[in-house]
Structures are given as C-alpha cells and as structure tokens.
Amino acid sequence: YTFAATNRKDNIDPAAIRPGRFDREVQFFNPTRKDREALLGIYLPERLRAPGLDLSVAAKACPGASGAHCANIVNEAKILTVRARLDQVTQDILDDAVLKVMMGARREGQRQILTPMELDTVKVHEAGHALVYMKLAGRAPLRFTIIPRGQSGGHVAYSDDFETLITKEHCKIRLAVLMGGAASTAKLRDGQEDSGIGMDIQMASDLAIQMVTQFGMSALGKFNLQSMQKAGLVTDQFRD
Questions:
Q1: Which residue of 30, 87, 97, 217 pairs with 211 in a disulfide if CB–CB is 3.0 to 4.6 A?
Q2: Is the pTM of this model over 0.85?
C-alpha cells in the first residue's frame, strides 16, 4: 500500500494521480467550531484547566484555525501560565494565547510610538469595518481591538460563516466590509487616505478577481479564466 499527503495537489505530475494510481482520495478541511473545541480539550487536559475555563469561548475566537493552530494555542497558553507562575490555564491566559497565535505577538510600547492622530486613525478605520459588518451581516463582530499585534495596528474578528465564501451576495458583503475601513476614514477625515488600507485593497482585489475569473459572478458570464487559457480560448482582445 502507498499513502501520500499534500496541500499542493496542483503541483503534482498528472501521471502520478491518474486513475489506477491511487484508489482513494480523502480531503481534509479545517475544523469547525465544535471540532476546534474538541481539539483544544485534547491538547489541554482537565487537570491543567482552571475552574470556570470555557473552551468554547476560545474555539469561537479563532475561526478558520487548523488543528496545528489549536495545538499551538494550547502550547502558548501553557508557556504564559508558567510565566504567570500559575498551575492551571485561566480563561484570560487562553484568550491571550488565541490572539498571539492567530494575530501575532502584542507589540509592547506601540501606543507610545504612535501619535494621537495615528491612534485615532486606527480607531476610525477598524470601526468602519465593524460598522459595515454589523449593518450588512446583522450581528456584532466577535472581537474589535486597536491593540497592535503582528503587522496589524488593530483588527476586527468575524464569525466562521463569514470567513467561508458561499453566495454572490456574501462575497459582495465581504467586499463592502473590507473597504469599510477606507470609507470610514474618508468620511470622517475629510477624504483623508492612509497606508493602513493596503492589505484591505489587496484582499478585496483578490476576491473581486476570483468572482469574475473563477466563480462566474459577473456580467462576463460563467467561465473559468485559467481553464480557458489552458485551452487556448483567451484572445488578446479578451485580455484587454
């Protein structure tokens, strides 16, 4: 028997995966919220949990996390527990571990580096994301913060279903939420623009391109651009 695993099936030689080579193909997806809660429970035994610790809170706070993320979250929580000179992982420590693994380490001293104007811009930007999400999705985000972590000056966390693309309407809502930060800054700061929208523009552009060239969600029709290019059906006129 031969077993193989990959997360880049597109790079495999077609001859290796044609019919008759591998009889079964099993696909694995990132765990759901309940799955994440179960994984956290496996990695964090009962004896290490402080009274009142609720794993479902941590599972809800890390949408899109993989099994490896869950293991890293628990490992980070154990490290933070030792540093705090405690014997068990508390809810606050587990929450901090989720943020560190999913968003990056907190940048200590960043509040002293940023000017009051810059801090205010971050608040306006993140509030724009949150308000557009609340208006269009009909519920509050999971988390809203302007505490700098990793490469981000602040962030808004959304629920699991918002992170999964399903319908055209859902995609349009995501585009609106992504551009909510820029719209909020322009509206409340007299047209001011800042570099903080760079990642938002990139993510919105990628999604918009996918909608047109992969999902068939445009007036151009139902087609996959990559497949058409392979078949030699894309002309220079089409590219223009």
A1: 217
A2: no
